[in-house]
Amino acid sequence: MARRKLLFGNWKMNKTIAESKAFAKESKKLLKLATAKGVDIGVAPVYLSLETVRKTNPKLTVAAENCHFEDHGAFTGEISIPMLKEIGIDWVIIGHSERRTYFAETSETCNKKLLALQANNMTPIYCVGETLKEFEAKKTKKVIEEQVKVGLKGLDAAYVAKSVIAYEPVWSIGTGKNASKEIAEDICSYIRKLVDKLYGNVSKNVRILYGGSVKPENVHAYLLEKDVDGALVGGASLKVDSFKALIENI
Ligand code: PGA
After folding, report:
1. I need a surface site. Which of 40, 85, 131, 148 has the fewest CB within 10 A?
2. From 8, 10, 43, mutation site for ligand 1 pocket: most ligand atoms within 8 A of C-beta
3. Which of 81, 14, 86 is nearest to 43 (CA)?
4. pTM surpassing 0.85?
């Protein structure tokens, strides 16, 4: 079965509840357009706006940007999976490079989160990617291998099949320096091969996204690549017009 394209907006620490609601209202048109194009779309707002966005457009896929792996306890400032489930959220971004860089997340902690999501039958978008230093030292594949192997350790093949992995070179995020479509394809196909080695045939089902300075002008080129099944988009996903142009240009 062909993998459906997926365009996901990562809003990061942007938009108040009111701003998120305004976008969610407009997203009904975006969803129509995406459906007509055969593309899946979704957004990841801050925790505070999750429920508002979901209620405003119940058909839109809504992801949390993070979660804790424990159900409850003494973890000041954290949000758990049962709390997300209670408000109807079943997608979560795990291991975004900003979390790895600024909040000391490791592939080991990501693994705990992925295992907890699996136990709750929730869909992850697991982010991997190398820093500029690693890229320049030609260590990209080594870094990706560790992030994939450690992050996905112990998951069931059937769960991996419906998971999403995002390749986001850290040097391309929010910098305007997007990776070439050749680099994106090289690493996305490498990730698929790794998944194949670890989990076998389900690698054909896993959706692998590229992320990093994706814009309406360059989204098409990435999505033409064989192993790039969509994009995780930061800056260009914040405005309805720009999100619309991303869908139109796929
Ligand atoms: P960007 O962010 O599109 O603003 O580069 C991508 C991301 O961090 O997911």
Report:
1. 85
2. 10
3. 14
4. yes
CA distance 234 to 163: 20
Say yes or no: CB of residue 235 within 6 Å of ligand 1: yes
Give catalytic residue positions. Answer: 96, 168
Does the beta carbon of 213 lie inside 6 Å of ligand 1? yes
Is the confidence at residue 1, as pLDDT, over 70? no
Cα 98 to averaged position of ligand 1 atoms, centre (Å)? 10
Mean pLDDT of 15-41: 98
DSSP output for the chain: -PPPEEEEEE--S---HHHHHHHHHHHHHHHHHHHHHTEEEEEE--HHHHHHHHHH-TTSEEEES--BSSSSSS-TT--BHHHHHHTT--EEEE--HHHHHHS---HHHHHHHHHHHHHTT-EEEEEE---HHHHHTT-HHHHHHHHHHHHTTT--HHHHHT-EEEE--GGGTTTS-PPPHHHHHHHHHHHHHHHHHHHGGGGGT-EEEEESS--TTTHHHHHTSTT--EEEESGGGSSHHHHHHHHHH-
Handedness of CA 43, 49, 53, 54 (dihedral sign): positive
- The amino acid at 130: E
Q: What is the 74 CA–ligand 1 centroid distance (Å)?
A: 31
